Amino acid sequence: MKNEVGDSIANKVYEHRVLAKLTQAELGKAVGVSKQTIFVMEKGNYVPSLLLAFRIADFFKVEIGDIFTYVKGMDEK
Q: Cα dist. 71→21, 31, 35, 47 in Å?
């Protein structure tokens, strides 16, 4: 997701899911969302809520910062 100043959230959901040998549907079911939500999140087209981000990190037993990273954009002038 990007806003007007170019900030975004990068994620490593795909990497963690593949290492765990899970399908998008399996991960979605485990954290309470659809397969489509996991798909668009992995593609970088959806930023999860804070609650969902914590659920995903908890599921993989990692810190939230191991999966989600804030990427600061350039300020518009």
A: 28, 24, 25, 12
Q: Return the amino acid letter for 25.
A: A
- Residue 68: phi and psi, rounded to 5, are -115, 135
- What mean pLDDT, rounded, does the chain reach? 91
Domain count across the chain: 1
* Residue 40 lies in domain: 8-71
Token pair of 24 as six digits: 């998008």
Size of the chain in residues = 77
Identify the CATH number of the domain in which residue 36 sits. Answer: 1.10.260.40
Q: Could you tell me if residue 29 is inside a domain?
A: yes
Task: Tell me which residue of 47, 40, 8, 45 sits closest to 24, measured CA to CA.
Answer: 40
Q: What is the pTM of this model?
A: 0.85
